[in-house]
TrEMBL record:
InterPro entries: Auxin_biosynth/cation_transpt, CHP04046_FMN-dependent, FAD/NAD-bd_sf. Keywords: Oxidoreductase. The keyword Oxidoreductase applies. PANTHER family: FLAVIN-BINDING MONOOXYGENASE-LIKE PROTEIN (AFU_ORTHOLOGUE AFUA_4G09220) (PTHR43539), FLAVIN-CONTAINING MONOOXYGENASE (PTHR43539:SF78). Pfam families: Pyr_redox_3. This is MSMEG_0569 family flavin-dependent oxidoreductase. The lineage of its organism: Bacteria, Pseudomonadati, Pseudomonadota, Alphaproteobacteria, Rhodobacterales.
Amino acid sequence: MNAADIFDVPVAIIGGGQAGLSVAKQLHKKGIRSVIFERHEKFHSWRVNRWDSFCLVTPNWQCRLPGFHYDKEYGGTDPHGFMLRAEITEYLDAFARSFEPDIREHTRVTRVAPHDDGGFIVETTAGTWTCDQVVIATGGYDTPIEPPYASKLDPAITQMHSVDYRSPAQLPDGDILIVGTGQSGVQIMEDFVRAGRKVHLAVGPAPRSPRKYRGRDATDWLYDAGHYDITIDRHPDPHKAMTQTNHYMSGRDGGKEIDLRKWHVDHGVELYGSLADMDGSKLKFLPDLKKNLDDADASYVGICNQIDAYIAREGIDAPEEAPFAKVWEPETERTELDTKDANIASVIWAIGFRPDYSWIEVDVFDGRGKPEFHRGVTDVHGVHFIGLGWLNTWGSGRFLAIEEDSAYLAEQIERQLVMVGTRSVA
């Protein structure tokens, strides 16, 4: 490689989702050229890796891409609704058209490493690039998680991860076991209930949230109260914030909360504790169903109390709510189940993902392989991350804070480019 090729592009952005394109938009405003590399097509995870009935869990007004807010520049007419999958991709595609980024689709990045002459080398399936700055915008959803004991399950039972799930029609007749009660697990549960299918649910430690409370969506109250402005540096329990599963609720049918106790009583969903093992047709669960339900309710009540305190503090006239009451308690902890006796024909794993950073050969990771940064800026000059949970606030990794996060990162990139005298215009 000759010297003329060393700085082929000022900024390489890896990942063509909303985070990567948001950084590109902010750099474009500053006259800084960037190239986005996307292994599939832009917004692939929204277009392909979501089930048919998927909709947002947070209200549309929280969709605030840089200079392209849902209810302003985009002209959306339902700010308190919850966009369906097709509507989300329409919004994202319109954002991309608003500034026409340089994006190389169907181009996988296989290696990022320091260049001998400065900057970085970016090897892709469509050739090799060099750059001054690299932005990692691939998110944390690379590798679907399935436990090792999944291989011991009776092979006659169909197994599927939530990333591959589209509708109940994909799965054979019979009961379904859904493992995990984060946002994906509980929404897929509803899909099967609506399809008239019997659901068995392994309840994990995910917290839950009210949907509408005292006359408004709970997220509206929390936004006004400044809850979403709390940074990870100021959070009272940053470890919990970083490791806790998202609160479960739904945007379906205009938005609803999910109380698993009610789904058991009203729809016959069978509830168990966390899945612990599988062997043939035998399933084993931990005796933690009561604890997990109680903990989820404690989170629910805690959010309600937080909203109550804000209303009282500000002297707001808002309707009262009846105090929370449990509609059902498990009498015993069922720790064993035979899939044959229960007529379980399928298992859906909804227990999350792991990121894959194996292609990054830069010393920006801790001993557990987690990237280290402050607001996305690492200690290695020129290497940055965007689109991860709690990059700075709760809204990081979501639509709500991507404008702020990408603006900050673009400022840091511009400063670093100016420091080494390589700032380039688009």
